[in-house]
Design a protein that fits this description.
about 200 residues, alpha+beta, Jelly Rolls, 6-stranded antiparallel beta sheet, 5-stranded antiparallel beta sheet, elongated
């Protein structure tokens, strides 16, 4: 392969990657609980629970408290919203009043009803961490504080530094790559024709 052809291929590849990077590097759709992710766009749910959500510190943070209705049975307190294609990240700071520990009051991330537990069931009554995950358009995601027994005291979690950075749909990325490949191919063809024309002149 000639140096000139290699340079053309390299330039085409760099241009394609650069374009993909620009498309993918969208600004944050939400920084904090604001805009599309303002509290008014979320849904609060109690199932056999008397928990509550405190949004008075939004957009900086929200605090979700689980149930303690003395029923002796499982309960769920959730705060959810609809997603677009996004990378969601947040910090969480958890505390349970249950003297028997966090096993009885787990906190986690919800996505389409699937609960991903973030607290350590064998850890301390106070815990904290950071979590990030991709969500797709149409997903219903959010946070949940469960209670396995609804007695002895509830757990609360404060969620802060919430950010949702929009990412392109897979179809958009594939379209961009195909367009870039066609452009690079056309450029190579033009360069080859020019080389042939120059050889005839010489």
């Amino acid at each position: 392969m000639s140096n000139k052809l290699l340079a053309t291929l390299t330039a085409g590849t760099i241009g394609l990657v650069g374009a993909a990077t620009v498309i993918g590097a969208n600004p944050a759709q939400a920084a904090g609980f604001s805009g599309s992710y303002a509290p008014s766009n979320w849904t609060f749910t109690n199932l056999n629970a008397d928990g509550f959500v405190d949004t008075s510190n939004a957009p900086e943070s929200i605090t979700l408290t689980g149930g303690d209705n003395l029923s002796g049975a499982f309960g769920l307190t959730a705060y959810t919203t609809a997603a677009v294609n996004s990378l969601v990240s947040f910090n969480w700071n958890y505390n349970t009043q249950d003297v028997d520990g966090p096993f009885w009051d787990p906190f986690g991330f919800l996505n389409n009803g699937v609960f991903t537990q973030l607290t350590d069931p064998n850890g301390s009554q106070s815990q904290s961490g950071t979590y990030s995950t991709l969500v797709k358009a149409g997903d219903i995601f959010g946070f949940a504080v469960n209670t396995l027994d609804n007695i002895v005291g509830p757990a609360s979690v404060t969620i802060s530094n919430f950010e949702a950075t929009q990412v392109p749909e897979p179809a958009s990325v594939l379209g961009l790559l195909a367009f870039g490949a066609l452009g690079a191919g056309a450029k190579l063809k033009r360069n080859k024709q020019q080389v042939v024309a120059n050889s005839h002149l010489n």
